[in-house]
Amino acid sequence: EVQLVESGGVVVQPGGSLRLSCAASGFTFDDYTMHWVRQAPGKGLEWVSLISWDGGSTYYADSVKGRFTISRDNSKNSLYLQMNSLRTEDTALYYCAKAVWSGYSPFDYWGQGTLVTVSS
Amino acid sequence: EIVMTQSPATLSVSPGERATLSCRASQSVSSNLAWYQQKPGQAPRLLIYGASTRATGIPARFSGSGSGTEFTLTISSLQSEDFAVYYCQQYNNWPIFGPGTKVDIK
Fold first, then answer.
1. How many angstroms away from the CA of A116 is the closest CA of chain B?
2. Which of A8, A44, A112, B38 is 20 to 30 Å from the Cα of B45, by its Cα?
């Protein structure tokens, strides 16, 4: 059974930093591109970032470019999101999601999310 | 950047009735279009990809159609568990989601 379990979400002040983690199991992690998607409270879904199977390619939404860094450790079946210079508009539930295939792809498995609140 | 729109914002339907949800892209995304269902407090679930291919385990009452810029998700006979928010997503390039359609009980 595929499982994605996010952690690391907390309340942080504007300008602060945070690292989210996603532990994957039930599939061959290093075969797949992985993504972060976020959802502000009561709002829709916003794609944040993706990383290729080997970590060699990373891409970001314009809204987080230069502030967030995605990474992965295939030896630990784990995905990460380093979030710096946080803004109030970054407040959201952050999901990790597994791509169906490499490249541009839908997402066939999602975690339950971890809540990041940016507030003074 | 591609903009995705969905209509209506809210659709009120009686159990057993048919629901038709629309999704439009501001430029062609070919058939690179997915639909997701999200219930309160839950993660999104992939329903349809490739505009018309049902994901694993999705009931046959869900069907998708369209290509280019106009897409439709049809739920042939609404069950109680189908009341939820539905999002379309294009993956012709960077993933972009539509704003969602809430399907609620009439």
1. 15
2. A8
What is chain A's alpha carbon radius of gyration, rounded to the nearest angstrom? 13
Averaged pLDDT, A45-66: 96
Measured CA to CA, the distance from residue A4 to residue A77 in angstroms comes to 10
**pLDDT on residue A8:** 96
Distance spanning both ends of chain B, measured CA to CA: 36
Question: A2, A109, A98: which is closest to A52 by C-alpha?
Answer: A98
Distance in angstroms between the alpha carbons of the first and the last residue of chain A: 40
CA distance to partner chain A, nearest, from residue B43 (Å): 5
Mean residue pLDDT across chain B: 97
Residue A26: which region, alpha, beta or left (left: phi > 0; alpha: psi -120 to 50)? left
Length of chain A as a residue count = 120
Residue with tokens 């999101």: A81
Which residues on B lie below 8 Å from A104 (Cβ)?
32, 91-95
pLDDT of residue A65 exceeding 90, the answer is yes
Closest chain B residue by Cα to residue A35: B95
> Any long-range contacts for B53-62 (C-beta under 8 Å, 24+ apart)?
B55/A108, B56/A108, B62/B35
Contact criterion met (CB < 8 Å) for B49 and A110: no
